Description:
Blueprint: H1 2-14, H2 18-31, H3 35-51, H4 55-68, H5 73-93, H6 96-106, H7 109-137, H8 141-154, H9 161-170, H10 187-201, H11 203-208, H12 210-222, H13 228-275, E1 279-289, H14 293-309, H15 321-326, E2 330-332, E3 337-345, H16 347-360, E4 368-371, H17 372-380, H18 385-390, E5 394-404, H19 410-423, H20 435-440, E6 444-446, E7 451-459, H21 461-474, E8 482-485, H22 486-496, H23 499-504, E9 508-518, H24 524-537, H25 549-554, E10 558-560, E11 565-573, H26 575-588, E12 596-599, H27 600-603
Antiparallel strand pairs: 1-3, 1-4, 2-3, 5-7, 5-8, 6-7, 9-11, 9-12, 10-11
Helix pairs in contact: 1-2, 1-3, 2-3, 3-4, 4-5, 5-6, 6-7, 7-8, 8-9, 8-10, 10-13
Amino acid sequence: MWERILLLADILLAKKEPNEACEILERLYTYQASAAVREKLVQALLALAEGSDNEDEQLKFYERVLGLEIDRPEAKTGQQNIWQRRGEQHYKKGNLQQALEAYKNANCAEKITEIAEKMQNQAQLLELYQQAQHALKTDDKQTAQTLFAQVTAREPTYKEASRYLHLAVTGKEPDSQPRTPMAFFNKPVLIVVIVIVILTVGVVNWYEHDQIAQQLFEEIKKDEKEDERLQAEMLKFKIELEQQKTVQREQKQQHNELQKQLHKIHRGILETFLSQLESGTYVVVAASDKRFLEGKQTSQIMFERIRSAYPEFLPPQEDNDFYNYYGAGKYWNGNVWIVYIGGFYSYESAIALKDKAIKEFGIPKDAFVRNSELDRMSLKEVKSITRFLSKRESGKYVVTVASYSSLDEEEQAQNMVEQIKSTYPKLFPPQENNDFYNDYGAGKYWNGKVWRVYIGGFYSYESATALKDKAIKEFGMPKDASVINSEWDRISLKEGKSITRFLSTLESGTHVVVVASYRSFDEKEPAQNMVEQIKSAYPELFPPQENNDFYNNYGAGKYWNGKIWRVYIGGFYSYGSAIALKDKAIKEFGMPKDTFVINSVQDR
């Protein structure tokens, strides 16, 4: 039935009617949360976002997509473009706070830093300006001159700083509106202003605003009647300025020399550290890009930055395929560009290099370790995995490539799944009618004792063995990969999981598992008796449902729908979870074979 709804949704999308398609897919997803339905719903939401002229609506659609598929690139890129565009608009209007928030949402690190620095500078200028105004009001002219001089040196056109500086120096308002901030001052006053700027602002700010100084000197030169005393004073100030500049240059030169020596020592430590690492197949990935042409350019830029700072990170690897094809520091694995540092190491050495590079050498914090063997196999692969898997005979055996012996190691198991999926996404085809797939998703499951990381699906023994051999030989899978009978794992699951733990894995919804019905309101007592019989054997099958009408009105285990009494077990679940509980209850808990699943909303 739901396959027909998917077909209808395809037709609607083809007719450019994403609203209607999205509406029916949202309803379908409530009851059938399969990968196929989710993908189609994502496509419909992306079509709605693309067709909308309202950015707020687009953000809403993208947010919904990311709620369904957290790493969907179209949605992440769409969100980022909108926030970046908004940041630019706010920035042009001078709304720095709004621009900062927008760029944070767009994750634009350079813009965030630029705006934060500008906001800090504006705050400092405002504080100096207000302090100077206060000093002028309290007749502290020396402080006012110093502070207004600092403001005009950093930003000559800031508010009325030039006017107030004139007032602080001469005690008078300017005669008329000036053409430039310098035009406020007559020649003697200009000399005094220059002195104040040099002595209070400092050489660095004076040097940075040399154009202002040049304009001031040019104004003085224009006056042919300048007396010799002013010229002598001017010469004295120039000499003092040059002396201070000389000191500053010497200090800067000493600082640069110390930096060079420190960097040289740092590079020596790095070179020694790299020489101690054990060779292998793992690389430390500093960045990756899925775009082939544009990604090649951005990867090269990242590579050049690393090489300019630490060329030791790019040692020769003459016997390495990727090195020979692409040169040190980057390679294309068939799906993404990989920018890596160092060479090819054992897993432990690669982890040590990653940690050191992040902590000491400024490599991005999201750097990670990757097995280059998987990338090589992807690069060399000729045969279609999809075609190979389509010829496998279905059954109950799986190809296990790794096991993790603790329930807490789910994240490690998932990381291995993601690593394989990034290279061979076709190794994880949908398995909609499989318990493990439905419970945990493609690539891993918990059997009650260990996490299994598996590839492909569930096959006959011969087909599973063929896949295992191919995976080891062509796809770089571990040589200790093995074939496991999943039926044995299911038995282990039954023995190892308590009912409470099983119920905690179920997804909430509106469906219940009905084990009996009584067709008269007067049969409340027999319904309750059946509840008590079940509860005496399996009390865990009646967990609290505090926010549920039926539970609150009738208590756990039974309710009256207006026509009949329902005796149900567990709680209120999605359709898939309710089916899983029904099957388990019949097979393991002795529930009637005519136990069925019903939508409690329809009963209401």
